[in-house]
């Protein structure tokens, strides 16, 4: 069993993917070829945002977004401590300071109730992360930002395809950033990412920053980066968009199967009403996480911990805050465990993972109980 099964996806989509790749090899425009604009139009239409700007990675999407807002030395950005390090890294790289507000225990996302008390005269933006594929409480976060004149950047690296009250992730605030890292719900075959905004001026700034701050050939209006996404990678994402909604539905079906098996027996990261998750991860909450992960490993079931150390406790970031700044994130880092889940996972494997986990925590397995009852 693979934790992320990219081989089955390639087998299923092979003809689409191969012909898209071949088309790029035939026209030879490897940088900013026609597939780049095609993908940007396709993804903008999908999310409802006016602009999509593809970039070289999810990390670069965050960096370029912060640069477009002019965030730098002396500025503060409020974010969650419970994310992949890139969230805080982009802020620090620009000389700004990440200010960590703790997470909500149920969803593991930024707790809006703790954001306002972190706002100072130096705060410029709030950066919630749509962790495991589920958007944070964006209405509450946007309302706080509006009251204080701040921008909201959604780190939607795990949540492309998710919704919040019917609106798509990446189009829930001023700016949304996603990643096409291969193991994300919508992945390419290397590094890639995209920025979404409906603000025309920000979109222009982002397009220029993506290409060394260039407004016309060899005219560099601002300081930028080399942040373009390869034409080949855009072609692969275009091919995968053909069945992306089907894949999301498969993820949701498998998650519902796990939910039914675990109901009342195993702690889960709560998926809220009026939101859908892209289910980048299906994550359970266990008191004896390390012991149970070892039992699953011994049974041949791969799992992962997202994330074992909150960002504010990482050696390179610990000087920015106090260890007791985010007690909920600290607690959850010791309890969360992500299970295998993917659109091409077969029902037998889903059952095997579910039953092995139930046995590991000492809970009964519904199927075998019924079988035992039948035998009696
Ligand atoms: C994956 C990820 C990123 C970084 O994306 P890359 O494309 O790998 O640079 C940023 N934030 C979160 C929450 C992620 O999961």
What key attributes describe this structure?
376 residues; alpha/beta; Aspartate Aminotransferase, domain 2; Aspartate Aminotransferase, domain 1; 2 domains; seven-stranded mixed beta sheet; three-stranded antiparallel beta sheet; 12 helices; 39% helix; 14% strand; binds pyridoxal-5'-phosphate
Characterization of this structure:
The chain has 376 residues and is of the alpha/beta class. It folds into two domains: 236 residues, 3-Layer(aba) Sandwich (Aspartate Aminotransferase, domain 2), CATH 3.40.640; 132 residues, Aspartate Aminotransferase, domain 1 (Alpha-Beta Complex). It is built from twelve helices and 15 strands. The protein has a seven-stranded mixed sheet with strand order 1-9-8-5-4-2-3, with helices on both faces. Helix 1 packs across helix 7 and helix 3 packs across helix 6. The longest helix is centred in the N-terminal third of the chain and has 22 residues. The radius of gyration is 21 Å and the shape is globular. The two termini are 34 Å apart. Pyridoxal-5'-phosphate binds next to helix 3 and helix 4.
End-to-end CA span: 34 Å
Percentage of residues in strands: 5-15%
Helicity, in percent? Answer: 25-40%
The residue-averaged pLDDT reads: 96
How many domains, as an integer? 2
**What is the CATH class of the largest domain?**
Alpha Beta
Number of helices: 12
Q: H/E series, N to C?
A: HHEHEHEEHEEEEEHEEHHEEEHHEHH
């Amino acid at each position: 069993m693979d934790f992320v099964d990219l081989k089955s996806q390639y087998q299923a989509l092979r003809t689409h993917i191969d012909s898209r790749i071949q088309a790029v090899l035939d026209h030879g425009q490897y940088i900013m070829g026609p597939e780049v604009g095609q993908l940007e139009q396709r993804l903008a239409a999908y999310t409802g945002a006016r602009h999509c700007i593809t970039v070289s990675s999810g990390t670069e999407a965050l960096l370029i977004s912060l640069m477009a807002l002019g965030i730098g030395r002396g500025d503060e950005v409020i974010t969650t401590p419970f994310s992949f390090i890139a969230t805080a890294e982009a802020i620090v790289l620009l000389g700004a300071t990440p200010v960590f507000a703790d997470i909500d225990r149920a969803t593991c996302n930024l707790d809006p109730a703790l954001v306002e008390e972190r706002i100072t005269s130096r705060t410029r933006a709030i950066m919630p992360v749509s962790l495991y594929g589920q958007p944070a409480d964006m209405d509450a976060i946007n309302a706080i930002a509006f009251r204080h004149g701040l921008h909201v950047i959604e780190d939607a690296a795990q949540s492309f395809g998710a919704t919040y009250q019917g609106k798509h992730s990446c189009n829930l605030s001023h700016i949304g950033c996603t990643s096409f890292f291969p193991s994300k719900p919508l992945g390419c075959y290397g590094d890639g990412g995209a920025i979404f905004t409906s603000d025309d001026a920000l979109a222009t700034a982002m397009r220029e920053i993506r290409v060394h701050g260039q407004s016309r050939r060899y005219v560099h209006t601002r300081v930028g980066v080399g942040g373009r996404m390869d034409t080949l990678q855009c072609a692969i994402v275009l091919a995968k968009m053909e069945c992306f909604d089907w894949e999301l539905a498969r993820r949701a079906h498998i998650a519902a199967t796990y939910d039914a098996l675990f109901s009342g027996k195993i702690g889960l990261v709560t998926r809220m009403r009026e939101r859908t998750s892209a289910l980048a991860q299906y994550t359970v909450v266990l008191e004896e996480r390390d012991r149970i992960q070892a039992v699953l490993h011994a049974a041949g079931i791969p799992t992962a911990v997202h994330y074992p150390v909150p960002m504010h406790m990482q050696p390179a970031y610990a000087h920015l805050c106090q260890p007791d700044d985010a007690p909920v994130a600290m607690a959850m880092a010791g309890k969360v465990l992500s299970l295998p889940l993917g659109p091409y996972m077969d029902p037998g494997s889903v059952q095997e993972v579910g039953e092995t986990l139930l046995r590991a925590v000492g809970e009964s397995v519904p199927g075998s109980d019924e079988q035992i009852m039948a035998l009696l």
